[in-house]
Design a protein that fits this description.
alpha/beta; about 15% strand; 6 strands; Rossmann fold; disordered N terminus; about 50% helix
Length: about 190
C-alpha cells in the first residue's frame, strides 16, 4: 500500500482504477457493502444501457466507440453521491476521465502485477484487448502505458496481488479511515 495523499475532500465518492484482473469489481462490491454505499461498475453499466456485451461493442464500434460510451458513463456516474465506482482498465487513457475522477472523488488504484493479471484474466473472451496471441506480452504493453496514468491520479494505491477480497476491502476501509476521519459515519 502506498498513500499518495488526499487531494480531494469528496469522501462520499470512491473511484477504483487499475488494470484488468486488479480486483476492481470484486473488491469494489465488498467495499461498498462495508461502507453501506451503492456500487456501480462502468463496464456493467455500459452493457446494461446498450443491451450488448463489451466484446460486441468493440466488434461493432471499435475501441473508440467503446471509449466514447465509457466517457459518458463516467461523466454521469461520477456525480452520484455515496458511491463506489469501478472503472474499466483503460478509462484512464482519456484525459477527460482522469480529470473527472480526480476532481469529483477519492481515487483508489488497485495495483496488480502483470503475472497476477495474467492468472486472473485467463483466456476470457469477454476481454477484447486480450485476444492477442501472447496475452502476457499484451498485458505488459498495457501496463507500461497505463501505469503512469493510474499513478498520476491515485490518492491511495493498494497492491492486490495477495489477499482475499474481503480482507483487501477491509484494508482499504481502514486506510480511508486513517486518511479521512470524515469517512467514519458518513454514509
Amino acid at each position: 500500500m502506498i498513500n499518495n495523499g488526499p487531494r480531494s475532500t469528496t469522501v462520499n465518492r470512491l473511484f477504483l482504477i487499475g488494470p484488468m484482473g486488479g480486483g476492481k469489481t470484486a473488491i469494489g462490491r465488498e467495499l461498498a457493502r462495508l461502507l453501506e454505499r451503492e456500487f456501480m461498475d462502468t463496464d456493467h453499466e455500459i452493457e446494461r444501457r446498450t443491451g450488448a456485451d463489451i466484446p460486441l461493442i468493440f466488434e461493432k464500434e471499435g475501441e473508440a466507440g467503446f471509449r466514447s460510451r465509457e466517457r459518458q458513463v463516467i461523466e454521469e456516474l461520477s456525480q452520484r453521491q455515496n458511491i463506489v465506482l469501478a472503472t474499466g482498465g483503460g478509462a484512464v487513457l482519456d484525459p477527460a476521465n482522469r480529470a473527472c475522477l480526480q476532481s469529483r472523488g477519492f481515487v483508489i488504484y488497485l495495483k496488480a502485477s502483470v503475472n497476477v493479471q495474467y492468472d486472473r484474466t485467463g483466456h476470457n473472451p469477454r476481454r477484447p484487448l486480450l485476444t492477442a496471441v501472447d496475452r502476457e506480452e499484451r498485458l505488459q504493453e498495457l501496463f507500461v502505458v497505463r501505469e503512469p496514468l493510474y499513478e498520476s491520479i491515485a490518492q491511495l494505491t493498494i497492491v492486490t496481488d495477495r489477499g482475499r477480497v474481503k480482507k483487501l476491502a477491509q484494508h482499504i476501509q481502514q486506510e480511508l479511515g486513517k486518511n479521512m476521519p470524515l469517512l467514519r459515519g458518513t454514509n
